[in-house]
Amino acid sequence: RITGDGVAVLHASGALWETTLKPGETLRVDTGCIVAMEAQVHYDIQMVPGIKTALFGGEGLFFAT
């Protein structure tokens, strides 16, 4: 959480993608890819489905949903 007056600088590498989720819409991303979100967005960590995806998918064992 960032509060107060002033300038906030967030460091992120790679491509940045801003999206607006509609009510009830879900997005699954790699847990290391979240930079920021608004307060009304709720997230959970879930295991990647399927053993082949977990082992050979290259993204790790968990998704942030």
Q: Could you explain the architecture of this structure?
A:
- With 65 residues, the protein is mainly beta.
- Helices cover 9% and strands 12% of the residues.
- The chain has one helix and three strands, in the order E-E-H-E.
- A three-stranded antiparallel sheet has the order 1-3-2, with no helix packed on it.
- The two termini are 19 Å apart.
- The model has no long low-confidence stretch (mean pLDDT 80).
Blueprint of the fold:
Layout: E1 29-30, E2 45-47, H1 51-56, E3 62-64
Antiparallel strand pairs: 1-3, 2-3
Order of strands across the main sheet: 1-3-2
Mean of all residue-level pLDDT scores: 80
> Care to count the β-strands?
3
Tell me about the largest β-sheet.
3 strands, antiparallel
> What's the N-to-C terminus distance?
19 Å
Structural class comes to mainly beta
* Strand/helix succession: EEHE
| Percentage of residues assigned to helices | under 10%
The value of Rg in angstroms is: 14 Å
Low-confidence stretches: none
Number of helices: 1
Principal-axes geometry comes out as globular
Oligomer: single chain
Keywords:
65 residues; mainly beta
In a few lines, what is going on in this structure?
Helix content is 9%, strand content 12%.
